[in-house]
Amino acid sequence: MTPSLHDLTTRFASVPGLTFDAEKGLTRLKLQTAAAEIEVFLQGAHIAHFRAAGQEPLLFLSDEAIFQEDTPIRGGIPIIFPWFGTRRHGRSADAHGFARNTPWELTGVQLEPEVMLSFELTPSARTQLEWLPDFRVRYFVYAGEELTLSLEVENLSETSFIFEAALHTYFAVSDIRSVRVTGLDGVEFLNQLATDKQLQSGDIHFAGETDNIYFNVPETITIEDSGLQRAIEISSNALSAIVWNPWIGKAARLKDFGDDEWQRMVCVESGAVQENEVEIFPGEITTLSVTYRSTVAAGIDAA
Ligand code: BG6
Known about the structure:
With 303 residues, this protein is mainly beta. It contains three helices and 23 strands.
């Protein structure tokens, strides 16, 4: 259960720049420092906003997002665990797992030597309805000039288990038609709309609904936005990357997404999914980490 606003405020009273409030009943942490501002919902340890000082906001959050218990938030950085999309092992359950709409514990806030927030998810009566293995997931968020995220999955069971995970990041862009994603040339991907595997040829440009899972990806992928003249470098140890934009038709079908909002976002997710799923042994810890670095530089060509 999420502690009350009063309890959180009292417990973290010594941290300057840190406040808690509620958006339609969901508890939200806000932290403002000289280097950056960040907002995180405790449900899902869901980062809804991040802006490094002097920069445009990094993330897209839908104006139609629903802030409600047990409901995923459309935008920001949902955490996908322990399965991605439709569950492939075990009985069917909600898409993308329970981590994104289950309350997490805020375990720490530090400002020095760097700003770091930490969160933890362990089994609850609710998660045990869907997932039997015993686990602990720790999430470390470093909010400075760059945003670094580290998701540590620990197996506390007596047998191994298989999981998928992803940081399902919605990036804010000027206009999806002015965006290209570089770094995946030659990488094999599954086009989820056609369900066939292909090899990426050149950069990714967007001219329609896109829902691709790339496997065994390189360490760095970049979103180049000629409208904002911004490059977002994504550096990660993740083996999978998912590139998603719903375009016009799917945007209209999503109830928590504005009809025109497909133009202002792109998801480039870092994870371990499908053929890159992870088998984790008792006592083992597996870490998924990613750093987002934005640079604004004249000279990004039109996509
Ligand atoms: C992406 C999937 O990761 O998430 C898409 O590849 C899916 O198929 C999208 O549509 C959004 O999922 P959801 O469950 O948040 O609507």
